């Protein structure tokens, strides 16, 4: 039985990952916040792998302190990776983000794109990625930098939950005038990928993680409505009006702001081809639609 230690086990992804790996005969130990305050005393010799999930999430209200991102997403990762390199542990999995590569995508985002993050969140994740890549890797060790796009699943309280509330209250979705395609990631697919990387001999590197299909927000609203046995209600409010409301939201901290609007209506398609190639996969285990339906069921 493979022994795995992980940070961030109490979070949304961590809770799902613990259940998933536990059901697949992994022995897990969550590294507590107290342990993270004393990384120099952390013993990684007794585990085969370390999965680093803990981090400061992207703040959609843009109120987070830049230093906080640097301290948590870069400094903490740096210290953990240094401890890993000195230990007998063989694998280090770091959960980064596609935002370390780009805040917006015109075509399809691949791992070959030159990173150009604009936010403090993305920059802090990229700094951590670079540090990991720059360190000499001892024989017998490997690292995997995973760049997930927007993750959803049971326990998630993000933008999908906001859309779900619109549907439940029979409020017409007002952003139907926007035509977009966005990649999402079912947490079940992320858990599967981590399990495969832990159990197989895969080359170290950076890997995008996304569901196979990109979905439009209008399609998501339709799926949410059908899954909730609600009538589909789409309303095409003029785009200039919506953009103005979003800018007002930035000023007055309203529920909708430019960042949330971008997440709901912008294009952001991510390629998972590199990851599927190294894992010899034709398709991810969970389709984008099935993963979305599972998320909706958890809202109920």
Order of helices and strands: EHEHEHEEHEEHEHEEHHHEHH
CATH class of the domain at 2-157 and 183-211 and 269-285: Alpha Beta
The geometry reads as: globular
- Termini separation: 36 Å
Strand content: 15-25%
**CATH-derived architecture of the domain at 2-157 and 183-211 and 269-285:** 3-Layer(aba) Sandwich
Gyration radius from CA atoms, angstroms: 20 Å
How many helical stretches? 11
The overall pLDDT average reads 92
What share of the residues lie within helices?
A: 40-55%
Label the structural class. alpha/beta
Walk across the major sheet and give the strand order: 2-1-3-4-6-9
Number of strands: 11
- How would you name the CATH homologous superfamily of the domain at 2-157 and 183-211 and 269-285? NAD(P)-binding Rossmann-like Domain
Task: Summarize the main sheet.
Answer: 6 strands, parallel
Low-confidence stretches: none
CATH-assigned fold name of the domain at 2-157 and 183-211 and 269-285: Rossmann fold
